[in-house]
Amino acid sequence: MKPNPGGQLAPHNIVGRDKLVAQMWTTLRGRSIYMNDLRRVGKTMILDKMQANPPSGWLAIKRDLEGCHTAAEFATQAYRDSEELLSKTALGLRRMRELLGVLKGAEIAGILKLPDGTAAPWKDVLRRTFSDLEEQAAAADNRIVFLWDEVPFLVDNVRRREGAATAMEILDMLRSLSQECRRIRFVLTGSVGLHHVLTGLRSEGYGNSPLNQMERVAPGPLAPEDAESLALELLRGAGFADDESKACAKTVADAVGNVAFYIHKLISRLPKGQPFDPPLIEAVLAREIAHPDNDWDFAHYRNRLRLYYETDERLVLAILDAIAATDAPVPFEAIRRQLASQTLFEDKEHFRNLLKLLGQDHYVSRDPSGCYTFRFPLIRRWWRLDRGL
Amino acid sequence: MSQPAFISRFSPNRTAPEDLERILVQRHELLAEAVALMRESALTGNKHHTLFVGPRGCGKTHLLALIAYRLENQADLADRLRIAWLNEDETSTSFLDLLARIYRALAGRYPEEFPGGELEALYGAEPEEAEARLTEALVRRAGKRTVLVLAENLDALFKGLEESGQRAWRALIQNHPVFATAASAQSLFAGVSERQQPFFGFFDTRRLGPLSVDEAAELLRKIARLNGSSELEAFLATPRGRARVRAIHHLSGGNHRLYIVLSDFITREALEELTRPFERMVDEQLTPFFQERLRWLSPQQRKIAEFLCMCSGPVPVKEIAERLFATHSTITSQLKQLREMGYVISYPRGRESLYELAEPLMRLSMQVKETHASQPLSLLVDFLRVWYERGEIEQRLARFDAAAPEREYFVAALQKFQSGEPNLRHQFLRQELEGIDLKHCGQAHLEMLRVLAEESSKAGDWFKYANACASKGQFADAVDAYTRVTDLPGTPGGVLPWALHLRGLTLQQTGRLEDAIADFTRAVQFAGAPVEVVAMALNSRGVAYGQTGRIEEAIADFTRTIELPGAPAEEVANALYSRSVAYGQTGRVAEKIADCTRLIELPGAPVESVARTLCNRGAAHFEAGRIAEASADCTRMVELPGAPVAQVAIALLTRGLAHGRSGRTEEEIADYTRAIELPHAPANWVAASRVNLTATLIIADRWHAGVEQLGAVLAQPATPPGATAVLSDAVLAVVFRQIGSPEIWQARVVQAVSLYAQHDSLTHLGDALVRHLAKLAGSVLNSAGLDQWLACWESAASEHEAMRLPLRLLRAGIDYIKTQPRDEGVLLQLPKEERAIARQALGLAPEKTE
Lengths: 389, 850
Fold this sequence. Notes:
The structure holds 2 protein chains of 2 kinds. By secondary structure, chain A is an alpha/beta fold. Chain A folds into 3 domains: 201 residues, 3-Layer(aba) Sandwich (Rossmann fold), CATH 3.40.50.300; 67 residues; 89 residues, Winged helix-like DNA-binding domain superfamily/Winged helix DNA-binding domain (Arc Repressor Mutant, subunit A), CATH 1.10.10.10. Chain A contains 17 helices and 8 strands. In chain A, helix 6 runs antiparallel to helix 7 and helix 9 packs parallel to helix 11. The relative contact order of chain A is 0.11. Chain B is mainly α. Helix content of chain B is 65%, strand content 5%. Chain B has a 5-stranded parallel β-sheet with strand order 2-3-4-1-5. A 3-stranded antiparallel β-sheet of chain B has the order 6-8-7. The longest helix of chain B has 22 residues. Chain B is elongated, with a radius of gyration of 42 Å. At the A-B interface, helix 6 and helix 11 of A face helix 2, helix 6 and helix 7 of B.
């Protein structure tokens, strides 16, 4: 396998997610899942893996929904996927046939139309489709999971094209479907967090919590041994067969915090045709993230603070500086003391809340002893460089 | 010459791909890798999406063309891959439009598999319907094959699609993993680099850099070869040819397209149909594009870009700010944005950064804009000035018709020559050579120095080349080059004596001492030579005289330097030092010391010279028995600020010896210890200090400390020869000194054997044991004592093979000592060779045979 940062992988090439996927299948027996984490951490790959190998008794269909711009397109896509899923069964989707008619109407393209040529009401399409699915699943004694990627983009598309109200309705529909269907489950995810879209809708009056009943899953980076294994395979795939391969694989994995995307990216940037060793790898990474025109976009972590933390920006910078400055996890009190020596800040509760938010935003993580560290060592490394720590 | 191959300088996808292969430089590895990635996309479930980023004219289309060509020629991909190369001049305003372009591209290449009728049937349909149907058709017709989409100007494509179209495209790729992508863009853009965008991190981005000089030369050679221009190809491989390419590099900025264009001017005999199409290309293709790029900028940013267009190289922020009447901070902030947008690149220089345009072709297009109608483009005029000699331009000009459009370029170039403007090629070469360290310059720079010197015939250029050769040990070339300087008619008077002196030094290095002396003499006698050179030449001649055994003449030269009015302090110091050494060689110790004293007190003498001389004088005092003076010199040396560490180590060692002579053991030990612990002290002086310290400790009967140091001495590789023997004798002496205290000396014997065995040095101990027989013979030890001595050694050492002979000799020697009167016949228990050793050790005369 050659390094493929950002590209698509065949499911058997997706490394290190077996345990997580198994856990997710277990969770899905009881509830749906909302998967959220940093961009490029591998959420789509997890969906690919789930689709490729569902356990016995499960049917899975994966769909990237960002191409849908209206509620009707979304509903049609759901119907289309359901038809495909059940294409081998004799019964098919009974209620939908009643809606669309057997010979007349039916889908011409993109949007389902009623026999009279008008667009089929999207809510109706969804309810009937899922009712049919539920019925079929019960009859066959199996379960169905919809692996929906880019749900936030879908909602945003609909908001832009059809207005906030329709977007809200889609969210409500998702919620009710996830609650009502006993044999149908959903795994929702997206490049951006749904909370970003929700924030916009809340300002327009949306008060519901569509994800309330869903299990939150944050995949995080790979386990160290899986990351090393991936790195080793990619080094060999890139033609770096060498005595130092194992040591280099570990260096790669450690340097980028075991994030698969960055493993692919770093290896793709290693110079060919010269001896390579751990110091070279470190040097290449250092050069990459220090380059003013680099495409790793770590500046995002700095730039977004003003938008999301507003008047607390300076304080948050100080907190992150304090955590980044040392390699070891930093206790709460140590951070607070350091801040106290630099600012007049004294509100301990507010400080605690900021740390919590930074955790939710994936900047930092807290270990069982209550000490804080950057969630991703690579981001800490960049932070130190950028901030001159 | 054969008909030159048509290399479409503006559209590589209209050049025969075989020719594109033949002129490929710089990117073989990248191309191979890209093809491998697309193969993997075709043959497996992994799909790669690659984006090549680089300024206009850097070879992006060339690369994409070759990717397509190589893939199409791989037989095992015939049924696995389909290529959709999107027309770069088209834009897409929607995702549907993009789908149509992809389909049309496939239909153009594979009309039977992707019939045009399928697309035509959708004309007039509702967009949503058309989009769904076209998607379905594409995916269906692709089947199990992978569709490789080749898209240029991806940033423009993204702009046209807007975010909704981008999302739709990404959804297509994710929902139907049959697509791979190879795209290009002028710079990284928000659509792929910003985290909130759909395609963030999606593409594997590879930057395409400019050509280096060597790569440019290789490109031109390949084009020459392709065109059958063997003479040109050979010329480009010569130092002169490479130097010309280096000079052009300043004009081209390493831009691939410019080199291909300029190659036409080199390879074609007739230049018709070159200049006008070139001007048209600039006017019609580049200018609108770059003007559009400039329109995207704020007024201030545009002014900065326009200013940089007029600059021939990188400029500092300060200059930009001054020229634009703006503040430093304003310009810095704008430049940061311009860099992020890909308009400028920065180069660090110390604490500042220099900036230049990222795209050399933008400068060209601005020139067109600024140039009045019918005036030749200065880039091409400059190219002619760089590439051709004046005579060549005159010859070519003579062949043109009066009305030939190219004539004006050659006329303009000739006018520049005639107006007395400096030779542009030489100017560029000198620019590149400015500031290089002649001592450490690489072969490429050395070659440039030579070419520059040969072409300019200037003494200064030959001089620099000579100095570089000398620094790199290329003495023959250096001598030759210095000779050019000395023989050139116009060599300035200030340079000539220098050249003579340096040539002399070079000759001296090669052992040609008489020739060196002759040069030094000429330098000394040169009328008007700077006193600095005269002083140096006198010193150098003195050294050469010394090397040929003419010490008195050497002393005379050094004396002249010392007495030369205005001689630099450094040279006077050198002369004093050298003269002191010469005095020392002739036994004139007093004069030697006087010179050393004078040097030490010389105002302005370099600290290294003073340090070296203090050491010398200290050693001289020591040899003469003036211990206090030796110690004082060494102390001064140790405390001299900035003294080289090697000299400090020698001084500590010498002072330690002096202390030892004076019976000041503690100070002696302290100095040796300090020398050992001196950071970065040379290994040989550390070893010598350790030996001395060991000897001192052992002789002072500080047994444990001494043994510890002895272990270090036995372990260190730099121990001076003979030192171990001396130390071993001292060990024996100190052990024997305690002969009245058996518990002590017997324990010491065991310790000594163990230590020497640990360091595989028992031979030394054994030798010392045998040598000690003489002391035993002269001691008052009785038989019982002698037996005890033997028994202890045998008990401690008999298991060691290396000690068997010494123990045999010891036994025989003791047997001899015990006989009253002394009976040499006792030694007959030993074989003849061993007897000889024993006899020698006991101080007996060699055996007489019958």
